C-alpha cells in the first residue's frame, strides 16, 4: 500500500467522525461507510472528499435557500426551453420527418428507454419521467440494483404471487385451509361491502356467486378446486382490508394471509389451472392478483397479469360473445372479466415504469359490459335486457373502462408520432370527462359508497389530465431532439 493510498492516523479519526462531504451520502442523506472512496460515491462515479478536522459546519438556512433557489432556476430554464420549442418546433418536425424516412415511431422513443443491468438480470424502463430520473441520478440506479439483490434473501411474504405456479401436494386437499363457517360468511360480506368496489372492475355476479360461496362454506371437502380457488381469493382480498385487531383474524394478519394464499396455490395446482382453465378459475386469479397488487407492485404482478390474459385468450374471451354464441348471461360475465384484465394490465405496467400502448384496450373487439344491475340478469335468460340510463352496479366499472380507453388514445397518439396537437389532446381528455360526468349524473351522494363512487372517477380524470400533459411534454422534447 503506497503512502498516497494509506490513510494516516488523523485520516482514520476524521473518517470515523464524518460522512463524505461532496459525494452522494450528504446530498441523499444515506449512511456513509467512511471508506476512501465511500461505496455510494464509487457506485455513482462521483468524487468523494471528506470535511477537514474540527467541529462540523452546519448548513445555514441561507445556504439551504440558495441551493433550493438554484434547483428552481434550473427547472424554470428547462420549462422555458420547452415552451420555446413548442412555439417553433412544429415546422421543424415536418421537415425532419420528410427528409429522414428512418425517423420512425420506434426510433423516436429511444431517448426514453433505459436498461439497468445487474449481473445476468436486467430491468427495462420506458416511461419518460421514470427513465429520465433514474438515468440522471446514479444513486437511484444503485438503490434499484441493491433492492433487486436483497429480494432473494427476504423471508416469504403473503404478497409474493409467484406461488400460484407451485407444484401440487396431493397428500392434503386444499379444503384444509378453509376457515370456519362464521368466519367465511363474514369475509364474503366484507368482500362485497369493502373490497369489490375498490378492486377494479366488477367481476362477480353476486346472486350466482353467493350460491357458489355458500355451497363451498357448507361443505368445502366436496367442493371443486375451481370453487375453492374462487372462495380463497375472496377470503384473501377481504382479509387485506382487515385491521390487525379484527376478531376475524385467527392468526396475525400476515400469517392469516399466508394461510389463504396456500389454499389458493394448492387449489390452482391440484386443479391444473394452466391446462384446464375455466372462467371461475380466471375470475379467482383476477381477484387474487388485484388484491396482491395493493402491497406488491413489482414486476411479477405485471407478468402474471399477462399470464391471466393468455388464459383468457385460451377461453376465447378476446372474441365478442355474439360471435361465439355462448348463452347471453355467460357472454356478459366474459366481458366483465376480459375488460378487467386488459385495463389492469396498463396500470400494472405503469407501476413497473413501462408506458407502451396497450393493444388489448385500443384494439379490443369485445363489447363493453352493459350498464345493468346484477338482479337484471340470470343464467337461464334468453336475451340480455337493455341498458339502464341511471346508476347501476356496473356504472363505476364502466367509468374505469372509459378512462382506460382515453389514456390509451393519448398513448397511441404519442407513440405513433401523430401530429396530434395539444388542443386535440386536451379535447380527448375533455370528451372523457364529459362522459364521466354524464354517467355520474344519477349518482346519489348520500351513502359513503356513493360518495366514493362519485369522487374516485373525478380523481381519475385529474390523473388522466396529468398523464396527458406528461405525454405532451414528452412529444415536444422528442421533436426538439429529432429536429435540432
UniProtKB/TrEMBL annotation:
Gene3D superfamilies: Zn(2)-C6 fungal-type DNA-binding domain. One of its GO terms (molecular function) is zinc ion binding. Pfam families: Fungal_trans, Zn_clus. Residues 465-484 are annotated as: Disordered. GO terms for biological process: DNA-templated transcription. Residues 25-50 form the Zn(2)-C6 fungal-type domain. Residues 465-474 have a biased composition (Polar residues). InterPro entries: Sec_Metabolite_Reg (IPR050613), XnlR_reg_dom (IPR007219), Zn2-C6_fun-type_DNA-bd_sf (IPR036864), Zn2Cys6_DnaBD (IPR001138). It is found in: Nucleus. It comes from the Eukaryota. SUPFAM superfamilies: Zn2/Cys6 DNA-binding domain (SSF57701). One of its GO terms (cellular component) is nucleus. Keywords: Metal-binding, Nucleus. This is Zn(2)-C6 fungal-type domain-containing protein. The lineage of its organism: Eukaryota, Fungi, Dikarya, Ascomycota, Pezizomycotina.
Amino acid at each position: 500500500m503506497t503512502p498516497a493510498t494509506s490513510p494516516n492516523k488523523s485520516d482514520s479519526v476524521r473518517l470515523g467522525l464524518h460522512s463524505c462531504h461532496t459525494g452522494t451520502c450528504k446530498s441523499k442523506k444515506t449512511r456513509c461507510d467512511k471508506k476512501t472512496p465511500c461505496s455510494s460515491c464509487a457506485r455513482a462515479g462521483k468524487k468523494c472528499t471528506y470535511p477537514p478536522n474540527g467541529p462540523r459546519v452546519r448548513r445555514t438556512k441561507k445556504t439551504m435557500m440558495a441551493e433550493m433557489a438554484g434547483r428552481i432556476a434550473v427547472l424554470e430554464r428547462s420549462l422555458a426551453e420547452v415552451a420555446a420549442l413548442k412555439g417553433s418546433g412544429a415546422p421543424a418536425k415536418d421537415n425532419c420527418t420528410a427528409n429522414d424516412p428512418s425517423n420512425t415511431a420506434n426510433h423516436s422513443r429511444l431517448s426514453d428507454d433505459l436498461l439497468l443491468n445487474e449481473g445476468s438480470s436486467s430491468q427495462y424502463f420506458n416511461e419518460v419521467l421514470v427513465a429520465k430520473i433514474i438515468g440522471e441520478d446514479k444513486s437511484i440506479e444503485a438503490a434499484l440494483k441493491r433492492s433487486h439483490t436483497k429480494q432473494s434473501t427476504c423471508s416469504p411474504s403473503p404478497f409474493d404471487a409467484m406461488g400460484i405456479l407451485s407444484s401440487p401436494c396431493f397428500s392434503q386437499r386444499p379444503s384444509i385451509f378453509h376457515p370456519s363457517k362464521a368466519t367465511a360468511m363474514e369475509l364474503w360480506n366484507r368482500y362485497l361491502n369493502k373490497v369489490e368496489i375498490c378492486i377494479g372492475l366488477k367481476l362477480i355476479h353476486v346472486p350466482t356467486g353467493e350460491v357458489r360461496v355458500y355451497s363451498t362454506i357448507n361443505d368445502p371437502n366436496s367442493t371443486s378446486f375451481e370453487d375453492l380457488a374462487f372462495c380463497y381469493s375472496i377470503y384473501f382480498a377481504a382479509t387485506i382490508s382487515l385491521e390487525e385487531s379484527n376478531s376475524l383474524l385467527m392468526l396475525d394478519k400476515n400469517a392469516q394471509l399466508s394461510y389463504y394464499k396456500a389454499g389458493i396455490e394448492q387449489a390452482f395446482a391440484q386443479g391444473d389451472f394452466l391446462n384446464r382453465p375455466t372462467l371461475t378459475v380466471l375470475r379467482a386469479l383476477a381477484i387474487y392478483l388485484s388484491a396482491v397488487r395493493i402491497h406488491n407492485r413489482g414486476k411479477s404482478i405485471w407478468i402474471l397479469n399477462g399470464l391471466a390474459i393468455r388464459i383468457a385468450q385460451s377461453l376465447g374471451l378476446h372474441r365478442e360473445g355474439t360471435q361465439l354464441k355462448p348463452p347471453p348471461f355467460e357472454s356478459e360475465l366474459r366481458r366483465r372479466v376480459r375488460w378487467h384484465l386488459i385495463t389492469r394490465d396498463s396500470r400494472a405496467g405503469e407501476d413497473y415504469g413501462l408506458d407502451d400502448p396497450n393493444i388489448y384496450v385500443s384494439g379490443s373487439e369485445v363489447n363493453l359490459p352493459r350498464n345493468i344491475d346484477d338482479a337484471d340478469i340470470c343464467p337461464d335468460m334468453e336475451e340480455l335486457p337493455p341498458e339502464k340510463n341511471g346508476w347501476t352496479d356496473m356504472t363505476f366499472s364502466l367509468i374505469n373502462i372509459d378512462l382506460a380507453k382515453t389514456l390509451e388514445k393519448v398513448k397511441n397518439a404519442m407513440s405513433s408520432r401523430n401530429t396530434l396537437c395539444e388542443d386535440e389532446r386536451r379535447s380527448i381528455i375533455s370528451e372523457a370527462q364529459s362522459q364521466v360526468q354524464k354517467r355520474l349524473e344519477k349518482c346519489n351522494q348520500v351513502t359513503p359508497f356513493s360518495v366514493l363512487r362519485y369522487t374516485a372517477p373525478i380523481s381519475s380524470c385529474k390523473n388522466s389530465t396529468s398523464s396527458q400533459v406528461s405525454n405532451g411534454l414528452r412529444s415536444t422534447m422528442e421533436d426538439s431532439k429529432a429536429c435540432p
